Amino acid sequence: MPESNTISHLTGLSILAVDDEPDILETIVDVLDGAKVDCAKSYEEALAKLDSKAPTGGTRTHYDLAVLDIMGVEGMALLQQTVGRGIPTVMLTAHALNPQSLKASIVDGALSYLPKEELVNLAEHIDDVLDAIEKNQSPWKRVFSRLGKVFDQSFGSGWELEDPDFWSKYKSPNYGVFYHRPSPKS
Predict the structure, then answer these.
(1) Overall number of domains in the chain
(2) What value, to the nearest 5°, has the Cα angle with vertex 10 and ends 4 and 12?
(3) Is residue 179 a part of any domain in this protein?
């Protein structure tokens, strides 16, 4: 995708990034240039940010997207929190790169799953997820199109055969978990 599309999708977004590794958070801030990235280094700090009140108006701080590490910050528990608040969420992992955590991310409502080795492509990856949401398409089809070879290399050939019905749904161009932001409450 052209750089200008990536910039236009990210510009002005408020993103919560949660990882226990400061260098990963620094990289996220760098690659998501144009977005306002709010960083947390723990589950507790992330929850506090999710529950914090905005300086004006007394409402909760609004995030357009969350990027969560799976392992060091209880990312799967945070995923339930972000999805429950209508925040589109991208899961990020190095140590939990396996079919089970990928499936759990899908089932629990994440819109994407990115190996940390692909972190330099995070802006393009998020742009793709946001584009799918805008077009009411499944972001998972795009994830598998973009990262299928990475998953095959990491998981081994035939990894989808353990649960072919599940995986075929998410790789199909006509299936998807579509994201609909809840209506703002007055």
Answers:
(1) 1
(2) 120
(3) no
